[in-house]
Design goal:
The protein is α/β, with parallel strands linked by helices. The protein folds into two domains: 133 residues, Response regulator (Rossmann fold, 3-Layer(aba) Sandwich), CATH 3.40.50; 62 residues, Winged helix-like DNA-binding domain superfamily/Winged helix DNA-binding domain (Arc Repressor Mutant, subunit A, Orthogonal Bundle). It has a five-stranded parallel beta sheet with strand order 2-1-3-4-5, with helices on both faces. Helix 1 links the parallel strand 1 and strand 2. The termini are far apart. It is found in: Cytoplasm. It comes from Bacillus salitolerans. Its main location: cytoplasm.
Length: 210
């Protein structure tokens, strides 16, 4: 059983999520805390496998609580579960030592899967958080956006620049149409553009197409 401590100042949130998690065959919510201060005490006393941590709470917020837990117990695995995606919350939380970052708008099943993945040593980040981190890293290194593309994504971008449709790309590369659509979506996201036309313009501006 993966033992979980849930720290959140909203009782109804704790009740709902805890009920779902406790119904899982491999997860057990062993304790709940309604503020960061109590969360720190319970975390260091019980040493749960996973700590679900809200960010905005009375007494002590989740960032400060995460810092205190990590200072005394560096092996702790903390998953931030919050409604906030703004930079002043995301980066401090991760810098404080949080392993994963989820939103309260996530499905309960997604939070359960994040618990399992984090327990097994993986870091789980909401796609929006991943995008923010990649953008921040690029700004610090001046790395071109297209360098985040995989070889397959670059291949598909060049075919898009040639004017080929998704079906034509599917036929040429011998991959499923659904797979092409997923790659195109990833390409648009990584290039931070809204449609295929803007992706083509990016490709020409950055001399990816001769």
């Amino acid at each position: 059983m993966i033992k979980v401590l849930f720290v959140d100042d909203h009782e109804m949130v704790r009740i709902g999520v805890s009920a779902y998690l406790s119904a899982q065959p491999d997860i057990e919510v062993i304790a709940e805390a309604e503020d960061g201060s109590e969360g720190v005490e319970l975390a260091l006393e019980l040493r749960p496998d996973i700590i679900l941590m809200d960010l905005v709470m009375k007494e002590m917020d989740g960032i400060e609580a995460t810092k205190k837990i990590m200072e005394s117990w560096p092996e702790a695995k903390i998953i931030i579960v919050t409604s906030f995606l703004d930079d002043e919350k995301v980066y401090p939380a991760l810098e404080a030592g949080a392993t994963s970052y989820m939103l309260k708008t996530s499905k309960a099943s997604e939070i359960a899967n994040a618990i399992r993945s984090t327990y097994h040593g993986q870091s789980v980040l909401e796609p929006e958080v991943t995008g923010k981190m990649m953008t921040k890293m690029r700004k610090g290194t001046n790395t071109p956006l297209h360098e985040d593309l995989t070889n397959r994504e670059m291949e598909i971008l060049l075919l898009i620049a040639e004017g080929k449709t998704n079906q034509e790309i599917s036929d040429e590369l011998f991959i499923a149409l659904k797979t092409v659509k997923v790659h195109v979506s990833n390409i648009l996201g990584k290039l931070e553009v809204h449609d295929r036309t803007q992706a083509v313009i990016y490709a020409f501006k950055n001399s990816l197409v001769k």
